[in-house]
What we know:
Elements: H1 2-12, E1 29-35, H2 53-60, E2 63-69, H3 74-83, H4 118-124, E3 128-134, E4 149-153, E5 167-169, H5 185-203, E6 207-212, H6 224-234, H7 238-252, E7 268-269, E8 279-280, H8 289-322, E9 329-335, H9 361-365, H10 378-384, H11 397-400, E10 401-407, E11 417-424, H12 427-436, E12 443-444, E13 447-448, H13 458-461, E14 470-475, E15 478-483, E16 486-490, E17 499-502, H14 518-534, H15 540-543
Amino acid sequence: MKNALILWLLLFSPTASIAQKNPAGSRPNIIVLLVDDVGYSDIGCYGGEIKTPNLDRLAANGVRMTQVYNSARCCPTRASLLTGLQPHQVGLGHMVGSGVPKGNIGYNGFRSDNNLTIAEALKSAGYFTAMSGKWHIEPGNPIGRGFDEYYGMLGGFGSCWNPKLYKRLPEGRPERTYEEGEFYATDAITDYAMDFTDKAKQSNNPFFLYLAYNAPHFPLHAPKAETDKYFDYYKRGWDKIRAERYERMKKLGVLEMNPIPELSKRGEVPGSNRIDTPYPLPAWDTLSTEKQLDLARRMAIYAGMLDRLDQNVGRLLDHLKQQNQLDNTLIIFLSDNGGCAEWTENGFDGGSGLKYKVHTGAELDGMGLAGTYHHYGTGWANVSNTPFNSYKHYAHEGGISTPFIMYWPAGINQKNKIDHRPGHITDIMATCLAVAGVTYPATYTDRKLLPLEGMSLVPVMQGKPTPDRTICVEHEGNRMIRQGDWKLVSANYKANRWELYNIKNDRSEQHDLATQQPDRVRMMAAQYDKWAADRNVVDWDLISPFKGKKITESIEK
């Protein structure tokens, strides 16, 4: 009788088009592990000096991809990751509460009429679904979009020390308690993630866990012991550390192109929306001793946050191993955008319009603790994105290139494999459905769905060929189109002028070929324009809430 009821539900429920191809016993658990504002070279297996042995372990026993693109910023990437569609298609072409005028359907908030989330698709196919971490997609919350369980921060950023900013849903579910001074967000997010895997095991169903840490996004907060581990190291400055990262990356093979990409020039502080004039980052040795110490402390906090995050990844891996679930768990690791160069006079360092302050003495020692609010600045973002140009927000490689690891002992027989094929975050939905044996439906609860934009990365796991593809990204007028080895890209603070690069020969975008190949520029620009028009992208100059406002104020100036 029970089996007949299950069969009836599969055949006649509103989601019957989501078909299970694999028997329940062979379906893997799936974890999408998203970190916040981590640059391409920050973790150890991509060349960074920050201690990340657990993420490195995933890479050593899985596949690292070197050319996967995100959507340049928090909300758009999260919406795209969860739906397999472009952010503008689901209403999040910009940020939640962005101030974009109403009526622009690509920017009015998270739609539910034309898409479904990975959680909705897998839940309908019998998966236990849970999320722990940063949501930052509105309107709505994880429970309304297919998740059985949730704990975390619904908004975009806030203190890692304040438990009141983190919410348990559905309301009334059991909550953990933390002694005064014991709470730290990264630890708590992992605590709940482990609770959710326990609950999944009790249900005897495979699980989908979206584990979205808010670290190491500003405000920079880390236990003092974690920060102290790195302080002396970063006193050496961004020029030396960036050069050392570049050499490690070459040895690791994560830059293995033909030829190996150049180390881009020391970056610049970008202007905002063509109002502010960009200016070069200074050499470290030209800064005062006081400013060097303050900046080194900031980067040490950032490193401490990422170190502590990696320790928590280790806790989760050990927990899954104890449950005998690790071998049949697919883990996909990535970052939502490149390193963050945001540093403004109106709130990103101190809040309430406070200008940047050089900290000394006891204040320096207390940076990163409860009650402080810091960012690491453009110079360190330039290090995070080694060897690339630009930062979060922008469509140059430094803004949209993510470290990307796939780990699945039972399903990936290639260990320590590095793959240089292009990919995009829309591929995550297609990949999750493929390994779960679930077909993406044309309709869901009587609403017609847009077809997926991404493709399954299972062939990458298996070392098999994939078709050529075109990849486009747009955020705040920063835009790109990638076709084969060619990339056409522009930045809003550079007057939206198209630049053309051969990525195979010049991944770090040092040699603009636009004037030498005007026909290719025109052809690719026309293809980008069609892509944009078909996906609700609007000219940013017409809708920008920042138009005419000077907002850049940098520590390094």
